[in-house]
Amino acid sequence: MALLAAALLLSACGGTPPRTGVATGPGLPSMPETTASPIIESPPPEPTATATSLPSLQSPQPHATPTPPALPESLAGAEWTRLPTDAKVVALTFDAGGNDAGVASILATLSARGVPGTFFLTGRWTQLYPQQARRITESFAAGNHTQTHPHLTDLPDAEVAAEVVDAEQAILDATGHDPRPLFRFPYGDVDARVLADVHRLGYGGIRWTVDTLGWEGRGAGQSVDTVVARAVGAASPGEIVLMHVGSAQDGSTLDADALGRVIDGLLARGYEFASVADYVTG
User: Fold this and answer.
1) Per-residue pLDDT tens for 185-198?
2) Is the per-residue pLDDT at 21 higher than 70?
3) In angstroms, rounded to a whole number, what is the distance separating the alpha carbons of residues 83 and 193?
4) 228 pLDDT exceeds 50?
5) Catalytic entry in 95, 166, 197, 255
6) How high is the pLDDT of residue 57?
7) Measured by CB atoms within 10 angstroms of the end CB, which terminus of the chain is less buried, N or C?
């Protein structure tokens, strides 16, 4: 009888235990080099982080999608690879799609120097690091970098829209900040179709003039010196510098470590700093 009771109890509980999900995050940051003219470099796929090192995530809750605001006139064309100005102005931009290893240092440096920055947040990063996202949006402009950092050109239009809208909602939920109209394509992967998709949602594409390559890390031959050389060496009116808030696979945070020297080098060349949002008109 005891054996029969045990068999009945096992049957009632169900044979196979439920599968437990492992939350994975878009590990490393996302990625043009400028000599005489800028060269666009696309970043590699971002490595993943496991649930043992990251908090659990909840999927964005469904929301009624309001009619998107009209796309600002200044963003209606192709992606920006520089600010629309002939003045000696530089925009320092930071992608947040991996971890938050460099955030505290970057925010401290920008704040201490009184320098604006523009951040592009994925929805997933915002859900993983809501306090850091709030710190960023309290003082700096922030745009949309999709929910999960995919290659958008591989997705149908409906999934492209979902990536953008889900990230927008995640950022709104965590920070109260609407990231429109600033958008950065993951990996710089864009074509006319997906650019039109984000335009319909009220976003314009913000690319970059130069990528510091700090995301590659020391293991790939990068250093604080190479980050500074690339950012300062590409100095030109309206330059948009691409940096990252996370660490490289080797744990280095070269962009964060080099930021003070990048600022000093550009100031020495007579440049000032601006947010990308300062140049959005219409």
Assistant:
1) 999 999 999 999 99
2) no
3) 23
4) yes
5) 95
6) 54
7) N
- Is 95 labeled as catalytic in the residue annotation? yes
- 244 is a catalytic site residue: yes
Rounded Cα gap, residues 141 and 31, in angstroms: 20
Tokens 């600002």 belong to: 72
User: How far is residue 75 CA from its own chain's centroid?
Assistant: 19
Q: Which of 2-6, 54-58, 195-199 has the highest mean pLDDT?
A: 195-199
pLDDT (0 to 100) of residue 51? 33
Exposed / middle / buried, residue 47 (Cβ in 10 Å: 0-12, 13-18, 19+):
middle
Please state whether the peptide bond connecting residue 47 to the residue before it is cis, i.e. omega within 30 degrees of 0: no
Residue pair 68/253 in contact by the 8 Å Cβ criterion = no
List the catalytic residue out of 145, 149, 177, 244.
Answer: 244
Sign of CA dihedral 132, 94, 98, 215: negative
> How far is residue 135 CA from its own chain's centroid?
15
- Give the single-character DSSP code of 206: B
